[in-house]
């Protein structure tokens, strides 16, 4: 039996900071570095309006460059902390810590193995990132627990009350030899969850995470689920996302009630040299007092922001231009990791 004190908080609970890693010429952003930096500056400026931001940089030269970028972009530099560490890429949702809390001021940095999304990309430096951050003193006296099992933060959603939501497609790709029952037990044990809800449907073309849940469906306060829908019957995503919506409608809360569902609008196809990009509105970030929503320059941006705001009442809605991010197959939530209040 797991220790009942520990739990994985919901993203809408109070936060200490947001953690990001800055793109540079040694990452996969090289070809379009200037473009993606505009998104990172907008993201940093938005986060620091509400709370601290921890920025991982590769070296002192990059730190100086980023400071100048943030100063020019209007970020509150008094809320920015820099940490110099090596990293392969900038998707900290997946290589950053999944932090458990115990209700008495204790924190556990759950450090699952990061394999570059099932071995698609080199990931040795990213897999060591949490250890580097611990050694740099970023997390104070938090416990650090390594778990030798592949899992990315974007592959799970927590309601903060013992329920985790995930997708079979992703976890089966990472662990094809394991049954759903065995993976269910590992998730419940590692995350101190009471139950795991699985989705069998849902995907986005241009997403190389094998259907991370944070591109598809998100828990929200008040037993809500916000999810990426598709109302275009001619689009090849339509049937699969319709089936995912049906699965979500069939889910029940821990006390047996249906969730309140908030379907998100569907952006028109965004192509890059003929390749379709995964423009998910579900990939938003919650911070203290606000929700940061991806914008893609599409007519659906405003409606997506309105719906996400309605699912997170009392928070300011801030749109962040994310079209440069989806060139590398992720979006706003994918490049960030929130840290619970009190840890940093």
Automatic annotation (TrEMBL):
Keywords: Hydrolase
An example Gene Ontology biological process: putrescine biosynthetic process
GO MF entries: agmatine deiminase activity; protein-arginine deiminase activity
Pfam families in the record: PAD_porph (PF04371)
InterPro entries, per database record: Peptidyl-Arg-deiminase_porph (IPR007466)
SUPFAM superfamilies, per the entry: Pentein
Protein name stated in the entry: Agmatine deiminase
Organism: Rhodanobacter thiooxydans
Upper lineage: Bacteria, Pseudomonadati, Pseudomonadota, Gammaproteobacteria, Lysobacterales
């Amino acid at each position: 039996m797991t220790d009942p004190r520990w739990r994985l908080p919901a993203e809408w609970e109070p936060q200490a900071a947001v953690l990001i890693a800055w793109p540079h010429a040694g990452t996969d952003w090289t070809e379009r570095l200037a473009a993606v930096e505009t998104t990172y500056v907008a993201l940093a400026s938005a986060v620091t309006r509400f709370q601290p931001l921890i920025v991982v940089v590769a070296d002192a030269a990059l730190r100086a460059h980023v400071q100048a970028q943030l100063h020019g972009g209007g970020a509150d530099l008094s809320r920015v902390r820099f940490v110099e560490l090596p990293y392969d890429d900038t998707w900290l949702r997946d290589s950053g810590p999944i932090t458990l809390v115990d209700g008495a001021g204790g924190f556990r940095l759950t450090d699952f193995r990061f394999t570059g999304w099932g071995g698609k990309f080199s990931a040795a430096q990213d897999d060591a990132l949490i250890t580097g951050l611990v050694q740099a003193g970023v997390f104070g006296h938090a416990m650090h627990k390594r778990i030798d099992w592949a899992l990315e933060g974007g592959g799970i959603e927590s309601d903060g009350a013992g329920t985790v939501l995930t997708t079979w497609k992703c976890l089966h790709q990472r662990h094809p030899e394991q049954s759903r029952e065995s993976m269910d037990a590992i998730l419940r044990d590692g995350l101190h969850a009471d139950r795991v809800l699985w989705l069998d449907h849902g995907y986005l073309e241009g997403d190389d995470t094998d259907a991370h849940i944070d591109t598809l469906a998100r828990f929200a306060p008040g037993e809500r689920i916000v999810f990426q829908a598709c109302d275009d019957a001619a689009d090849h995503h339509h049937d699969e996302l319709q089936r995912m919506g049906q699965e979500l409608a069939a889910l029940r809360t821990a006390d047996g009630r249906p969730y309140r569902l908030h379907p998100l609008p569907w952006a028109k196809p965004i192509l890059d040299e003929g390749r379709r990009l995964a423009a998910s509105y579900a990939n938003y970030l919650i911070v203290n007092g606000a929700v940061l929503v991806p914008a893609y320059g599409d007519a659906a941006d405003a409606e997506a922001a309105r719906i996400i705001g309605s699912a997170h009442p009392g928070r300011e809605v801030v749109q962040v231009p994310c079209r440069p991010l989806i060139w590398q197959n992720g979006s706003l939530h994918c490049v960030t990791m929130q840290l619970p209040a009190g840890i940093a």
